[in-house]
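Students often ask why we bother encoding 3D structure as a string. The short answer is that it lets us treat folding as translation between two languages. Here is a chain of 297 residues written in the first language.
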Amino acid sequence: MPVLNQFFKHLQFEKRLSVNTLQSYKTDLKQFQQFCVEQGESVDIHEIESSSIRSWIISLMDQGLVSRSVHRKASALRHYFRFCIRNGYCELNPMDSMVLPKMSKPLPVFVEAEAFDNLLDQYPFGSGFPGLQDRLILEVLYGTGIRLMELVNLTDSDFDESAGVIKVMGKGSKHRLVPLTHSIIPMMLEYCILRDEFFGTNTHPRFFLTNKGKKLYPKFVYRLVNKYLSYVTSVKKKSPHVIRHSFATHLLSKGADLNAIKELLGHTNLSATQVYTHTSLEKLKQIHRQAHPRATE
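And here it is in the second language, the structure alphabet:
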């Protein structure tokens, strides 16, 4: 216990963990100690063996804990042993040989294509600058799948209406060209005229501005997206990234090549894009369960 208390002080005063995170560490480690006591095994830092940890992890899985929670509890134990080795309380880390259950990745949340059709084609945004800007931001996010910060940082020169593309500065300062839908281009030209009438020409460093003529910022876009998606969907998360997920999911469902989607999204490797194949597979499974006469037998 004295060593454990020293570890908690280290987390609180040196690592400056939040109150909630610190409490999670305390709960996880005390649960492990309680398990060892119930199994008649030693809780002495010199005598804890990997077999005891393995039994604890198996018991957590038997209790129905998801793999993410098991990983979090095991991480607390791993940090504890590293602290003990670093400070000379023990020499070996029994967590080094531990194999943890594979952690499943959550499937991307997306909004159905019909919801975007209803929003972008039916909602009365208005013909003034604020309404046009709101609609254009939504059209660009859904029509291109770009990230929030990629949208915020767009400039006038990034739009090439004659070629029908935008140049996007992605992660790692890498540029990529993304096609624009036909509905975006005339809307974009109209927006530029209204924007310059409201705020003047050459006074803004970015393509999109706030309603006060200031540089667009992430929270402005997040609130805008949350507001409009609330009109057409009940999904819990309503963010610009959900629109990006929807863009990729809808392309894949319509037969788009996975490598092409990878390039459009600006992913470095294909593994980041492959998560959308799981989303499509889950959708197929759901349709199969609902439609096949023997699926529920």
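Translate back mentally: Strands lie at 159-160, 165-169, 175-179. Keep this in mind for the problem set.
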